[in-house]
């Protein structure tokens, strides 16, 4: 019996995955959400088709035996929590804050109007559609919520497909859907509290509302810091595989239990946990994609398949139920489209824009199915009413993509909006904008303090988590204590504060303070750096004294340190002719960046612009061309060089930094760079490639520049080259270093 039950359970999972994923793939190829394919796959495996064609086999595999059904239901219920966790992680509250008041107008009318329609409709439904006709108020709350929420996932999918995510209206639509989703889960939580008491009672209702409010306040104050700390601690402390994902699942479970204890549904806890996890500054794309992978691959097909199994479309052969379903679809569509359209018009939108908003908000998708499934499990909705809601969700969701494509296709792009979109597209190619976490190794020397300050300038604009390893002389450790580490920390924070103010002023956004972890080390080796690098960093910045030998080569200690880090490396060095003092970055300071059209050179330009923005410093971009003179004067073509310089100038415009460009043709790269430095550059930022070999070497140009200049030189090195054909890349990068 046990073996048979386990076999049937596996067969159920396999069928749901096979049919759901297969149909989801087909739907996605035709521009429809994959979720709808999974839902329809479950409908086909249920009494609507499989049970109609071969009822014995359908009843055998999807048994109604309570013990057997409980196994697959448990996976489905866990799927609901994981889906809400993922939905919360994809909820970008920063976008809502940035967009402004328009999305609130759309959200409020887009929820209130269809909710009122759904609540009123519940009072006119036949008694046969409700398990308990006396609970029409609770049924109305569920039905109103199901009609009023838009599916953020479906809306975002169509927006992304049409390259509309960055458009002004696209961001308003996504923000409105986020607010609606949040309101919906709050309503469901309160509705669940009402349903547990069987009727609308004033005192329990007030208790539930107050409990939910306190939970939300706690979550977004103390809870936020606690979640950030737990994720960071698990990422940095555990060595076992997928430890952060385990901690995230524990956070979700604990918050779901808290909401259950205060008398509301566990979905609210899972949703809020997802929001907090998604906002964690330490959460990498890799960890997020791993979690999304297991939810998308297993739990989504099982949950939506089980939801489809609970729907029996054969009941729609009854003319009365069929007409009621048509009426439900019409009421849902009119209410949702009308509410969002009204909100758009109240926010000052044109008819075309309000039409696009109304079309987008009419997608129900996963959210309504989850709401209806909760109502069915609580015996608030009957199977027939559940089938009607699922049918409504399928029809409105499938109709939304073509409607939205038609509406968005009629909207022109204004000049200012076009410029903003182009600037944001540049960010996708940016080096600094894609960094998630910095590792910093410095000592008490002037170059160490200067490096700490530069790290703050780079990471402060986005509140980037930074780990500071302060290297301290072992002989002085007992005397100095942690004073050196404190000084370095102050430099990081000073640079971060300067950068945050510049970003906030330029982009009208609030930047959280830099997340800094400081630690004192008596020595730094490949093992020390490798152990720290395992926690996940996008860039290692090193600022140490005496890193160059008398011969101009790099010290063995620096070679050892760099070998422990596989990612991009940033070395801050003093030119051989420098006096040891570091420059003061201020308005009018010039940062020189040599470029040659390679990606490593573009990274250096991006890095230099990030350093220049907080102080409104200038950046001079120098291209040393190897183009050969033609047969006559004026025949040299610099189209490639000019294209490279224009690309950097466009990037500088995004940063709001003034740039000067120059092309030099009658000098080697190192001499041209040295001449430009002599004209008054405060520092040089060079993109270089680390060459394979026993010694730490970045090319002849970088070595020559370090020997010739009297200012700091920042070498931004790409990942260590491990390919056999590395010599080709070395040759291409030689001009810039």
Automatic annotation (TrEMBL):
Q: What SUPFAM superfamilies would the database entry show?
A: Adenine nucleotide alpha hydrolases-like (SSF52402)
GO terms (molecular function) for this protein are: antiporter activity
Q: Where is the UspA domain?
A: 590-715
**Keyword annotations for this protein?**
Ion transport, Membrane, Transmembrane, Transmembrane helix, Transport
Location in the cell reads: Membrane
Main location, first listed in the record? membrane
Q: Which residues form the Cation/H+ exchanger transmembrane domain?
A: 17-406
Q: Name one Pfam family in it.
A: Na_H_Exchanger
Q: How does it sit in the membrane?
A: Multi-pass membrane protein
Q: Which GO terms describe its cellular component?
A: membrane
Q: Does the keyword Transcription regulation apply?
A: no
Please report which protein family the annotation says this sequence is part of. Belongs to the universal stress protein A family.
Name this protein carries in UniProt: Potassium transporter
Organism, by scientific name, is Mesorhizobium jarvisii
């Amino acid at each position: 019996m046990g073996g048979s039950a386990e076999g049937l359970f596996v067969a159920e999972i396999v069928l749901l995955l096979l049919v759901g994923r297969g149909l989801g793939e087909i739907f996605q190829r035709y521009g429809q959400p994959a979720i709808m394919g999974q839902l329809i796959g479950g409908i086909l495996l249920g009494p609507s088709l499989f049970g109609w064609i071969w009822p014995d086999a359908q009843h055998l595999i999807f048994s109604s035996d309570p013990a057997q059904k409980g196994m697959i239901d448990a996976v489905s219920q866990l799927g609901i929590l994981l889906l809400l966790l993922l939905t919360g992680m994809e909820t970008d509250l920063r976008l809502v804050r940035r967009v402004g008041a328009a999305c609130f107008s759309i959200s409020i009318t887009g929820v209130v109007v269809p909710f009122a329609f759904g609540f009123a409709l519940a009072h006119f439904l036949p008694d046969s559609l409700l398990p308990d006709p006396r609970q029409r108020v609770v049924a109305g709350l569920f039905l109103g919520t199901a009609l009023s929420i838009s599916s953020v996932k479906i809306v975002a999918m169509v927006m992304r497909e049409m390259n509309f995510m960055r458009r002004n209206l696209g961001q308003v639509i996504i923000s409105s859907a986020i607010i609606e989703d949040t309101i919906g889960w709050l309503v469901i939580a309160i509705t669940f509290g009402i349903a547990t008491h069987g009727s609308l009672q004033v005192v329990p209702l007030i208790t539930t509302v107050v409990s939910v409010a306190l939970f939300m306040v706690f979550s977004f104050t103390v809870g936020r810091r606690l979640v950030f700390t737990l994720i960071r601690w698990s990422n940095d402390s555990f060595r076992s595989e997928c430890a952060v994902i385990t901690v995230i699942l524990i956070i979700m479970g604990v918050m779901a239990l808290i909401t259950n204890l205060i008398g509301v549904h566990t979905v609210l806890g899972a949703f809020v946990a997802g929001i907090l996890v998604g906002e964690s500054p330490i959460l990498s794309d890799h960890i997020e994609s791993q979690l999304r992978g297991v939810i998308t691959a297993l739990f989504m097909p099982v949950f939506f398949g089980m939801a489809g199994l609970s729907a029996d479309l054969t009941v729609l052969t009854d003319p009365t139920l069929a007409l009621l379903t048509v009426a439900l679809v019409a009421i849902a569509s009119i209410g949702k489209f009308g509410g969002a359209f009204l909100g758009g018009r109240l926010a000052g939108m044109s008819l075309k824009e309000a039409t696009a908003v109304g079309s987008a908000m009419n997608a129900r998708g996963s959210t309504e199915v989850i709401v209806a499934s909760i109502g069915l499990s609580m015996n608030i909705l009957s199977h027939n009413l559940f089938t009607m809601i699922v049918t409504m969700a399928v029809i409105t969701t499938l109709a939304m993509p073509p409607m939205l494509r038609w509406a968005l296709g009629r909207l022109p792009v204004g000049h200012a909006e076009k410029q903003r979109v182009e600037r944001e597209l540049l960010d996708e190619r940016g080096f600094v904008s894609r960094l998630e976490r910095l590792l910093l190794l410095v000592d008490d020397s002037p170059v160490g303090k200067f490096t700490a300050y530069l790290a703050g300038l780079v990471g402060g604009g986005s509140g980037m988590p930074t780990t500071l390893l302060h290297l301290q002389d072992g002989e002085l450790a007992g005397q100095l204590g942690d004073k050196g580490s404190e000084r370095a920390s102050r430099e990081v924070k000073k640079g971060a504060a300067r950068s945050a103010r510049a970003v906030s002023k330029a982009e009208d956004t609030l930047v959280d303070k830099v997340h800094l972890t400081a630690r004192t080390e008596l020595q730094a080796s490949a093992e020390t750096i490798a152990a720290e690098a395992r926690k996940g960093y996008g860039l290692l910045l090193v600022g140490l004294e005496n890193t160059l030998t008398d011969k101009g080569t790099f010290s063995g200690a620096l070679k050892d340190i760099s070998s422990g880090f596989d990612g991009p490396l940033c070395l801050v060095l003093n030119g051989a002719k420098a006096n040891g003092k570091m420059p003061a970055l201020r308005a009018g300071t010039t940062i020189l960046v040599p470029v040659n059209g390679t990606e490593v050179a573009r990274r250096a330009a991006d890095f230099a612009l990030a350093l220049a923005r907080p102080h409104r410093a200038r950046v001079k971009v120098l291209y040393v061309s190897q183009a050969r003179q033609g047969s006559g004067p004026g025949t040299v073509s610099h189209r490639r060089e000019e294209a490279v310089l224009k690309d950097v100038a466009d990037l500088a415009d995004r940063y709001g930094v003034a740039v000067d460009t120059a092309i030099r043709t009658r000098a080697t790269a190192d001499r041209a760079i040295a001449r430009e430095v002599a004209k008054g550059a405060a520092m040089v930022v060079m993109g270089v490639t680390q060459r394979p070999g026993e010694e730490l070497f970045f090319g002849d140009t970088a070595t020559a520049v370090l020997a010739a200049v009297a200012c700091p030189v920042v070498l931004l090195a790409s990942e260590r080259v491990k390919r056999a054909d590395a010599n080709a890349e070395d040759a291409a990068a030689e001009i810039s270093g």
